[in-house]
Amino acid sequence: MNKTRKESKGSVGIESFQSRLRLRLPRQLYQGTQKYLTLGLADTPENRELAEQKAHQIELDILSGNFDETLAKYKPQRHLSIVIPGEPQQVLRIGELWDRYVEYKRPSLKPRTLDKLAVLEKHIKRCPYQALEEGIKIRLSLLQQTTNSQAKDVLMYLSAACKWGIKYGLVTFNPFEGMYNELPKHKWQDESKPNAFSEEEKLKIIQAFRNYKPSKGISYRHYAPFVEFLFLTGCRPSEAIGLQWKNITPDCSRITFESALVQVGNGERVRVNGSKNNKKRVFNCNQKLQELLLEIKSDNHEMQSLVFPSPDGLSIHYRNFSRRAWDKIVDQLVERQTTPYSCRDTFISEQIAKGVPTAVVAKWCDNSVEMIEKKYLDSQALEQLKPL
């Protein structure tokens, strides 16, 4: 039995037992009793990587309080079949390739991406054609069973899975190479245009939330600071929803955006470290933003508590907020369809209109200059400007 991993207390060890890999779980999980999870994998460099991924998954679950003591969640599936050294087992069916690809990528994927892949997987598993040689038939079947947009996404990820499979000797060709590019663009790619508010509209929206009169016990006035914060920072709604007091300096002069609370398919809110682009950024507050934060900050606040909790003290449910509070107040007020993301469009358009360099605004908002100009800068906000 060979130990191959430097471990700290609470970590999961990887061992070779009778030429097969197994994971040694921390004793404290079972009142001092030693337990193992046998993977059924031959001890090869490739399978060591899979074992490392599984160990990392368990360690993350332990830290987050989601550890499954029955171990059913971590038991080997088809993608953990035995691999003979020097003879990679080739995959001939898209369902099996998909399982292996997603499991390999899982540790590096964010919850929302995993949620999306779970939806795409249903289309793959439901497809009557599974052989890689049937690429054209698979494409046709996908277009028949789901939307053009979903089929495009499935083909894109299948192509990525094949590229990964070729690298690791699981497949020998990629029948989906470039296939998704032949389909029409996604609707959001063609129709996604900035939708900023005018200065007058912005002030009306903030006042509408502040002065909202409760009806049937529902008061949307609670969300007024949250809405104003979106206008003053241009941050993503998920970043504001997940913001904690530990991310703000005591005098409320500086904010560090380093995580977000996102919703997955079942409505569960999951904290994701880093921004959408896996970055952490510091945002200096102007006087108005600093005053807003000082106003809502309580004397006995806890560092881990949310800056903008929901009325019941939990995290804001973005979908409910958008469909109820936002749609009820904002869309009726401005007489067009908008979303809370329009606050981001507004902030970006305002700052650039005031002369702030696009590169600076891009850093403030965690985006590239190209994306700022393409997706967020509303040209209507610039029409009233005159050359110097």
Percentage of β-strand residues: 5-15%
Helix content, binned percent: 40-55%
Report the top-level CATH class of the largest domain: Mainly Alpha
Count of the domains = 3
Question: Spans of 5+ residues with little confidence (pLDDT < 50)?
Answer: 1-6, 78-87
The total of beta strands comes to 8
Number of helices, where a helix is a run of at least 4 consecutive DSSP H or I residues:
14
CATH topology of the largest domain: hpI Integrase, Chain A
Query: What is the first-to-last residue Cα distance?
Result: 77 Å
The major beta sheet can be summarized as: 4 strands, antiparallel
Which architecture name of the largest domain does CATH use?
Orthogonal Bundle
CATH superfamily grouping of the largest domain: Intergrase catalytic core
Q: Write the H/E string, N to C.
A: EEEEHHHHHHHHHEEEEHHHHH
Would you mind describing this structure in some detail?
This protein has 388 residues and is an alpha+beta fold. Helix content is 43%, strand content 10%. Helix 3 (111-126) packs across helix 5 (148-167) and helix 7 packs antiparallel against helix 8 (224-233). The longest helix is centred in the first third of the chain and has 20 residues, at 45-64.
